Amino acid sequence: MKGHSLKIRLLWVGTIVLILALSLTGFGLTTLFERHVERRISLELDTYITQIASRLSFAPSGLPQLDDKLADPRFKKIYSGLYWQIHNETAGLSVRSRSLWDTQLNLPVDSPGFGKVHIHTTGGPQDTSLLVHERRLLFKSPKGQQVVRLLVAIHLDELKKMSSQFANEVLFSLLSLCLFLLFAGWVQIVIGLGPLSHIQKSIAAIRDGATTRMNSDMPSEVAPLANEINNLLEAQENAIEKAKHRASDLAHGFKTPLTALRADIRRLRNNGEYDIANDLDATSMLMQRQIDRELTKARYRDRQMMTNVKILPVIDNIVATLTRTPDGERKRFQIDCKSDLQIQIDVDDLADLLGNLVENALKHAANELRIKVYQTKQAVRFEIDDDGVGISNSKRNVAQKRGVRLDQSIAGTGLGLAIVKDILNAYNENLELSSSPMGGLRASFQFPLPPDYMV
Fold first, then answer.
1. Is 440 in the same domain as 427?
2. Among 391, 407, 223, 233, which residue's Cα sits nearest to residue 304?
3. Is residue 352 part of a domain?
4. Fewer beta carbons under 10 A from the terminal one: N or C of the chain?
């Protein structure tokens, strides 16, 4: 599930941290910009006041007037957002810039100290708010000293507009940076977690039998994990090997007593003790089946021994062994298998599969049996045919049950097909029984082709 993905978790945490960091960065940059603009405008307004003060003169009536116009054209444009106003407190007369048109700036009711800049806000034309810088100065004139208040004001919307434009540009830049950093973070996460994917693939390869150990050549952070997995695999193999040895020892330990017991059973039958002999015979057969079953389980439980096994040498060994038996000497073997054909399996499991099926076919064949192995598009198929009487459809499922012998006249334990079925189940494959073109029974199964294998 995505909610349990380590990559998604890391990406979510990185995204949250990144958004918080960039948000704080955007807020900080906007605040710094606003302060910078305010200082810049304050310096600009103070410069205008200085220019006005240097060009100020008075008419005989005491009316203030400027000897020269200020250079900024906004003072001449009506309601441009930049204004000046001069008020002669001594004469009670005022003049203002053309940009104020018919509006008089309201002065605060206070008396700031001479020469100091007084900053405040006030209402402006068209219901606007203005930032005002004011200085109260003392001038000499033909009529004596004049107390004059010089004001320069700027529309506060100009500050807000510049701050808004800057914030929008910063937002676009930070969003672009955020997307880039998220992509870079995702790439970093994928690369950083790459060794975990390698571990996953290595474990899958071990499970499928392509390898028996993980490669320990990994980054130092995950190398201990790979080493621990390898140690666990080694311990598991040792435990399985010991279990196989104990099962084998158990089987050999029971072999002699069971042989002696069968000899006693024969003597009982010769002496006419048929009931006791039959009971002992059933008990000994049950013991033999249990031993064979545990030996088989100990074998196919170990999936770590899977390798690419060539099939023809295994068949040749089985046939070579069976041809030395009385049944094998009297019957013909047909082998149809390419020399380089192979599957991925434990070699002992393949020997058990083919050995039980070929031995079963040999017991029921009249004159010959055939072992055919061939490759399809995605698998290798095995077919073992005999020319015996075969098995009817109704009895084929029964024949695969453990301990069942359809023909009591033929010696055996009834475990051959059941063992084959157990081994195939361990590899997620099935045994198929059908009528053979030779007249008897066909036993068939298949295995997938080894990875990257081409015949």
1. yes
2. 233
3. yes
4. N
Distance separating alpha carbons of residues 23 and 263, to the nearest angstrom: 92
Q: Do the strands 441-448 and 432-435 form a parallel or antiparallel pair, or are they unpaired?
A: antiparallel
Label residue 120 left, alpha or beta by phi (over 0 means left) and psi (-120 to 50 means alpha).
beta
CA max distance for the chain: 163
pTM over 0.85: no
Q: Which of 374, 384, 382 is closest to 427 using CA atoms?
A: 382
Per-residue pLDDT of 23-62, as tens digits, reads 899 888 888 888 888 888 889 898 988 888 888 888 888 8
Looking at the fold, whether 281 and 316 belong to one and the same domain comes out as: no
Helix 223-270 vs helix 194-208: crossing angle, to nearest 10? 10
Do 364 and 407 meet the contact criterion of CB atoms below 8 Å apart? yes
The pLDDT of residue 402: 44
Q: Are residues 36 and 82 in the same domain?
A: yes
**b/e per residue 353-368 (b: at least 16 CB within 10 A):** bbbbbbbbbbbbbeeb
Output phi, psi for 193, to 5 deg.
Answer: -90, 5
Domain final residue, candidates 271, 304, 337? 304
Task: Give the count of domains, the chain.
Answer: 3
Whether 312 maps to a domain, the answer reads yes
State whether residue 64 is helix, strand or coil: strand
**Could you tell me if 420 and 432 are in contact, meaning their C-beta atoms sit under 8 angstroms apart?**
no
Of 445, 206, 213, 236, the closest CA to residue 343 belongs to 445
User: 356 to each of 128, 363, 397, 423, how far by Cα in Å?
Assistant: 102, 11, 17, 11
295: its two tokens: 């030996």
Q: Domain containing 320: what range?
A: 306-448
Q: Which of the two residues, 111 and 375, has the higher pLDDT score?
A: 375
Q: How many CB atoms lie within 10 A of CB 425?
A: 12
Give the pLDDT score at 403.
43
Give the count of beta carbons closer than 10 Å to the beta carbon of residue 277: 18
> Which residues, including other chains, have CB under 8 Å from residue 313's CB and lie 6 or more apart?
none
Q: Is 378 helix (H, G, I), strand (E, B) or coil?
A: coil
